[in-house]
Amino acid sequence: MADRLLQTKLFIPSKRPFLIPRARLHQQLDGGRDGRVTLVAAPAGFGKTTLVTSWLAEQTTPHAPYPTPHIAWLSLDEHDNDPGRFLAYLLAAIQTVCPTVVGLLPGNDEWQPRDLEAAMEELLNELAGEKRPFFLTLDDYHLITNPTIHDALAFFVDYLPPHLHLILTSRAEPPLPLPRWRVRGQLNDIRAEDLTFTAEEAAAFLRQTMGLDLADDTIVALEAQTEGWVAGLQLAALSLRGARDPAALIANFTGRDRHITDYLLAEVLYHQPPEVQDFLLQTAVLDRLTGDLCDALLSRGAGEQGSRGEQITPAPLPLRPPAASLLHHL
To answer: Under a CB-based contact definition with an 8 Å cutoff, are residues 42 and 83 in contact?
Structure first.
């Protein structure tokens, strides 16, 4: 299987040029490096992968305050829900910096792990001999839905050697024992409210990254309109280029903007299961999603188990806090 793996899934995404400094988030990542897991969880367009790649790049600079770490990366997709495939890619990612784990990957086509936890045990024993700091990133973990893999990864984290740190990016909270890790001080949690641009970051992004010459009050209005959603600001900036009256465009900027619509369709709506797509279309007239409102709109009977809105809430959608009640108004 190893020779058929897609090697680009193991490449760390290139650091984007002209990124604005996000020192507060880098400090938050620094603060969690002594734990076992960092979870960066937020809906589409909040800059999760960009944040992690920029921070990892910082760890290898000459002025970094810590020893240079091993850095391994795996970009996940839906096909990685097969336990054998998941393990093969996990081992291949680790092998990019720790070639000694090559012996764990048999070269026969029939090989499938009957006991993923046992394979994790062997992997942990191999990694225990490494002394150099090690960051392993699993990007887009929300695409993993197989309980067998969740259980194996939880076991893996519970017994990680102290020099190894796992980073997960996800559009939704993964079904992992996060409360247990949090209580033990092993979890570094970064969420949408952390990733949202501050007014200062929004100004720097629009002027330095997007090259827009906007007045301060115009930037404040746009930041308020997008609520600091990174993708929203970027898409709004694309619409503003060449605009004769930016202030008027911002005042009328909504989810009907072509760039916003295309992004939400491609990155959010089309990735939802059919029942979620139907639900979102039927409730699109609402600014606020609560169980009672959704039940009333959908004529859901009081005797039915649970409200539809509560069932849909975990979907990785751009929500305003509190997440169970307010949709992003774009």
So the answer is: no
The single-letter DSSP state of residue 172 is S
Q: What span, in angstroms and rounded, lies between the C-alpha atoms of 296 and 231? A: 32
Tell me how many domains the chain contains: 3
Domain ends where: 180, 195, 210? Answer: 195
- Helix pair angle (147-158, 83-95), 10° resolution: 40
* Whole-structure pTM value: 0.79
- CA neighbor of 133 nearest in space, from 98, 108, 90, 176: 98
Claim to verify: residue 160 and residue 58 sit in the same structural domain: yes
Domain hosting residue 35, numbered range: 2-195
The answer to whether the CB of 76 falls within 8 A of the CB of 139 is yes
C-alpha dist (Å) from residue 317 to 41, 259, 264, 296: 12, 17, 9, 22
In a domain, residue 261? The reply is no
User: Taking a C-beta distance cutoff of 8 angstroms, is the pair 172, 323 a contact?
Assistant: no
Alpha helices in the chain (DSSP H): 23-31, 48-59, 83-95, 116-127, 147-158, 178-183, 192-195, 199-204, 216-226, 230-240, 246-251, 258-267, 274-282, 291-297, 308-312
User: What would the pLDDT profile of 257-302 be if each residue is shown by its tens digit?
Assistant: 565 666 555 656 666 678 777 776 777 677 666 767 777 777 755 4
Q: Is residue 83 part of a domain?
A: yes
Do strands 319-320 and 134-139 pair parallel, antiparallel, or not at all (unpaired)?
Answer: unpaired
